[in-house]
């Protein structure tokens, strides 16, 4: 089988012009198949649909995720289709293979008490305390993405009405709602601390680094993690967790899914619907805990 694999990789490289990374990925799948078949003393011509399905099943039991198996199915399909087209095989055994359904990864969230503890732990009398509090309040109050917060500008923020115009994925602009608690935290930062960070090169970005430049995404991640650790929160903490919590808590509070879609800036309602599964999981948990015959 090795000769056929080498010829196929050359085909991908020369005739299809596919990347080295893609060639390597395909080779890894096919060589894993070759090793598996050699262990069963089965030549390439004896591999049918059942054998290929058994190979994929073996990979699943070894810990491969559904996403990896979907990629492996694609690799097998293009390889055996190529062999059949060259008449190296009488038929394509991979054609009937079905890719596994993608796994439904529910987003992690924090409960309201944990978020309250996180925000309350920030001492605004300490250097950069006001900045960090305003950042975390805005992440949670508006459900912003990391890039949206880092690129937020003063001219796009209305401190009286509580709206912030942000540019999200696909360069799409939306108006994010800023709650009262976040507005107060931002006002405290702008009135008392931001001016101390300004230099001659400072732009109109709301959140600044100690050098006066816009806060980088990496630095913002570090701030979120450091503040969570200081609050004694053991969960793996990252900015998007606050966005997930924002959406989940809105849904739990009775907000319409279409409103949440608009607030998050999702182009498709199906992206927002994942939060309904989070809410269902909570309902199941409550039912199991409190119903006598759950």
Distance between the termini: 54 Å
CATH class bucket of the largest domain: Mainly Alpha
Sum up the overall morphology in one term.
elongated
Sheet with the most strands, sense and barrel status: 3 strands, antiparallel
Classify the beta-strand content into a percent band: under 5%
What is the CATH H-level superfamily of the largest domain? Intergrase catalytic core
Named at the architecture level, the CATH assignment of the largest domain is Orthogonal Bundle
Q: Give the count of helical stretches.
A: 14
Mean pLDDT: 91
How is the CATH topology of the largest domain named?
A: hpI Integrase, Chain A
The total tally of domains equals 2
How many beta-strand segments? Answer: 3
| Secondary-structure class | mainly alpha
Report helical residue fraction: 55-70%
How are strands sequenced across the largest beta sheet? 1-2-3
Give the C-alpha Rg. 26 Å
Low-confidence stretches: none
N-to-C SSE series? HHHHHHHEEEHHHHHHH
């Amino acid at each position: 089988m090795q000769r056929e694999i080498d010829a196929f990789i050359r085909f991908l490289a020369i005739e299809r012009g596919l990347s080295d990374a893609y060639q390597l990925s395909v080779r890894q799948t096919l060589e894993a198949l070759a090793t598996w078949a050699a262990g069963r003393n089965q030549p390439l011509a004896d591999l049918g649909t059942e054998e290929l399905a058994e190979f994929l099943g073996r990979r699943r039991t070894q810990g491969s995720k559904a996403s990896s198996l979907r990629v492996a199915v694609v690799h097998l399909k293009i390889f055996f289709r190529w062999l059949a087209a060259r008449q190296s095989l009488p038929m394509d055994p991979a054609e009937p293979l079905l890719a596994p359904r993608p796994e439904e990864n529910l987003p992690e969230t924090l409960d309201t008490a944990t978020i309250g503890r996180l925000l309350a732990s920030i001492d605004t009398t300490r250097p950069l305390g006001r900045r960090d509090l305003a950042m975390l309040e805005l992440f949670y109050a508006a459900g912003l993405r990391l890039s949206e917060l880092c690129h937020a500008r003063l001219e796009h923020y209305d401190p009286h009405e509580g709206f912030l115009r942000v540019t999200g994925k696909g360069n799409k602009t939306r108006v994010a709602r800023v709650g009262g608690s976040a507005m107060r935290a931002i006002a405290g930062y702008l009135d008392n601390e931001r001016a101390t960070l300004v230099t001659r090169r400072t732009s109109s970005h709301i959140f600044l680094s100690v050098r006066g430049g816009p806060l980088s995404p990496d630095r913002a991640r570090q701030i979120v993690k450091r503040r969570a650790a200081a609050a004694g929160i053991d969960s793996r903490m990252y900015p998007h967790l606050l966005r997930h919590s924002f959406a989940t808590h809105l849904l739990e509070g009775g907000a319409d899914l279409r409103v949440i879609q608009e607030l998050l800036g999702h182009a498709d309602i199906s992206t927002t619907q994942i939060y309904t599964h989070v809410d269902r999981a909570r309902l199941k948990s409550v039912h199991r805990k409190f119903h006598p015959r759950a």
